[in-house]
Design goal:
Layout (H helix, E strand, L loop, with lengths): L7 H11 L13 E6 L3 H4 L8 H5 L1 H13 L3 E7 L3 H6 L1 H5 L4 H10 L20 E5 L12 H7 L4 E7 L1 H14 L3 E10 L3 H14 L2 E3 L1 H14 L1
Parallel strand pairs: 1-2, 1-4, 2-3, 4-5, 5-6
Helix pairs in contact: 4-11, 9-10
GO molecular function: hydrolase activity
Keywords: Hydrolase
InterPro entries: Isochorismatase-like_dom, Isochorismatase-like_hydrls, Isochorismatase-like_sf
Amino acid sequence: MHKVVIPEKVVARVIKRQGRWNVHDDVPAGRTAFVVVDMQNYFMAPGQQVEIPAARAIVPNVNRLADALRRAGGLVVWIRTISNEDSFRNWSHFHDVLNTPERRARRAAAMAETAFGSQLWPELDVRPEDLIVRKTRYSAFIQGSSPLEVELRQRGIQAVWIGGTSTNTCCESTARDAMLLDFRTTMVSDANADHTDEEHNATLINFCINFGDVAATDDLLGRLQKAQAAE
């Protein structure tokens, strides 16, 4: 698990701007979605090209949040990244410029629709009522990547919690775009994972300064419990 460190001066800066540390704690659970990004074998299984060992450590928190939000009437969304002809054609510079030919070929094979690498990690508590969405770019919200925005709008979702891997790539991209699309967005500090503590914390710091809330699993669980007790 990452050691989360957000400097006090950053916390003070956020509170000065918005009046309190977290400002998205008043959205009803029924209007909230927990969007879990890329918790799939390619990023989690030992020996995979982009294995992120810390992602295995956050599985219990991801499952706890999913279970609690589900029971409170919210939506759980599992995002899978896949490689297909659309991504090769419309995101070609990533595949052809930012990757060597060997790496591109390995990624394409591992992330095909039916390949091992594109399948969700088996220890995740995925339920039939959850939504599973495929994306083809870092962000699940950017135009052409996935139908996630439409799916959430149709369900009346106003707020999203972002978890998954990696913190500073697909999770951050998805979280930023969620905020820019006017979803009230929270990154879950201990339900995201990256290669290093430094990368993880850099994203959380930048996100809370400029884009939305950062909260821990227990904070969000406590929020749900408090709302249920008040009903």
